[in-house]
Amino acid sequence: MKIVGFIIVGCTFCILLSSTCINMYARALTPTVGATLSLEDLGLSLSSPEDHSAAAEAVHQVVMDHGVCFLRRGDNNNFEDDEDDKALVSFARRLGELEKPHPIYSSDPTSPLAVVANDAEHLPDGAEWHTDCSWSEAPPFASVLWPRLLPAT
What is the pLDDT at residue 36? Predict the structure, then answer.
């Protein structure tokens, strides 16, 4: 599995959770695609590296069952600084191999993080972001997107 670049969904027993147990915590958004998952309900936090394997297993299972997994942003899953970015990269690596940095959106050629924004500091094309890998022989399994700023509505 590969993950497209992103900015951005400790309990040892959680690693052993079955898909049935994980889906008890996933809430379908529509009859056909998408579900939300609260890692806090599973006793996990993305900001805690020791939880990453179990969290990745839970997220992967929800993606396989529902196509899209939306992680509820709780008190323990707020990524707002460089240390948080490192934790998010660490988590994403548990989902699969990360893509190389995007040549346009990456501000650091050594980091898989890509910033998509429409402010003066970044290219004004946040509404047009897309993955460029669908043509490849082995396209990425998923994209991990983590919004930092969302409109009120």
Answer: 84
